[in-house]
Amino acid sequence: MISFKNQFLQFVAQTSPTPPSLEIVKARGIYLRTADGKRYIDLISGIGVSNLGHRPESVSNAIRKQLGKYLHTMVYGEYILQPQVQLAKKLAELLPENLNSTYLVNSGSEAIEGAMKLAKRITGRHKFVACKNAYHGSTQGALSLMSDPYYSDFYRPLLPEVYFMNYNDVQSTDAIDDEAAAVIIEIVQGEGGYIAGTDEFLIAVADKCKKNGALLIVDEIQTGIGRTGKLFAFQHTALVPDIICTAKAFGGGMPLGAFITSKEKMQFLADKPVLGHITTFGGHPLSAAAGLANLKLLLKSGLMNEVYDKELLFRKRLVHPEILEISGRGLMLAIRLQSEEKVKKAIAHLLENGVITDWFLHEPNKIRLAPPLIISKPEIIRVCKKICHALDTLKD
Ligand code: PMP
């Protein structure tokens, strides 16, 4: 019989030549179990999704409960589905007043697409400003926001007018002018290697948006749902975004995204023409029920209050001559080493020893750490020892 690994490589479409190919049989909390009987600590939350660990009890129960009622019944926005209504209402309670209308979608990329389309409708403009080394998704609108031509050139023509700022470079905010429909920005840059935005830069971006009538779209797809210690990372700042996008951890392990803005702004997608954005499965009842249970659990758990201490513990314990820098905020932390080769070696060594870390799309010299927020302090101490041990093996 052909092994599952070979069948995986043969029949399941691949996105890279050498996927890690762990054959998962079970996942619970911060642990994954594979078919060969090995146990792994998931230090990346599969990436940035399992913020409350894999399969939290109350999320699984909510999915089972919803499964006993109904699954798909009608395309998005037509019928009253209680899990969607409750989730959107809960978000409105938790967010500033101008973020009181939620459009539920299937993924982060779709949330970005929806936000970009909405910005075009509201402003009547089509120029976008994003940051170099950002990643906002793989669909063609979101891909247009990717600065590295390695990823985007083969798919051109993409959106015609996208300008890039250097992240944390106040001067480059000059790209935001009165022709810009919107600026799309992350509060902690994800695929750029977990770089926290400076207050100075973020405020300059917000000021330029305001001055020029451009909308401020904050991509909270990796930073959201407690990852930095607040529900959304913009809540650490003085920024008032016009639109926020969420996905990844939002569904508690189920596929779910959203773009969120004011009722008045959102109305543009429902009027002249109607159906400005439509989706069959957006806000699927199972995903919405899971997302609601996940949000309630996050709020009840008090875990967001522990994020800062856990970040400090990682920083305190990750002291090693091979570590040049630790960047990021909250439980999105990146370890900078001297070279890509060292990063690859360390990641492979850690995987061999039951610890899952990862690399970044745009930053080859860093190791990604984004553990579930439920990771305990003794577990942090244990994994830091394992990381330092992996770094010991890098000595020339
Ligand atoms: N924005 C950010 C910041 C992301 O990290 C990602 C996914 N890595 C996306 C958007 C796209 O999300 P999805 O993969 O769900 O389409």
The percent range for helix content is 25-40%
Shape: globular
CATH architecture classification of the domain at 58-301: 3-Layer(aba) Sandwich
Taken in chain order, the helices and strands follow as HEEEHHHEHEHHEEEEHEEEHHHEEHEEH
Fourth CATH level, the homologous superfamily of the domain at 58-301: Type I PLP-dependent aspartate aminotransferase-like (Major domain)
Structural class: alpha/beta
Largest beta-sheet characterization: 7 strands, mixed
The proportion of residues in beta strands is 15-25%
Query: Count of DSSP E strands?
Result: 16
Give the strand line-up of the largest sheet: 4-12-11-10-7-5-6
CATH topology of the domain at 58-301: Aspartate Aminotransferase, domain 2
Number of discrete helical segments: 13
- First-last Cα distance: 43 Å
Task: Indicate the low-confidence ranges by residue numbers.
Answer: none
CATH class descriptor name of the domain at 58-301: Alpha Beta
List the bound ligands: 4'-deoxy-4'-aminopyridoxal-5'-phosphate
For the CA atoms, what is the radius of gyration?
Answer: 21 Å
- What is the typical, i.e. mean, pLDDT? 97
Describe this structure in words.
With 396 residues, this protein is α/β, with parallel strands linked by helices. The protein has a domain at 58-301: Aspartate Aminotransferase, domain 2 (3-Layer(aba) Sandwich), CATH 3.40.640. Helices cover 34% and strands 17% of the residues. It has 13 helices and 16 strands. It has helices spanning 4-11, 45-48, 57-67, 82-94, 108-123, 140-143, 149-152, 199-212, 263-266, 285-301, 307-317, 340-352, 377-392; strands at residues 24-28, 31-34, 39-42, 101-105, 127-131, 162-165, 180-185, 188-189, 195-196, 215-219, 243-246, 257-261, 325-329, 332-336, 355-356, 366-369. Strands 4-12-11-10-7-5-6 form a seven-stranded mixed beta sheet, sandwiched between helices. Strands 1-2-3-15 form a four-stranded mixed beta sheet. A three-stranded antiparallel beta sheet has the order 13-14-16. The protein starts with a helix and ends with a helix. The site of 4'-deoxy-4'-aminopyridoxal-5'-phosphate (PMP) has 13 residues, from helix 5.
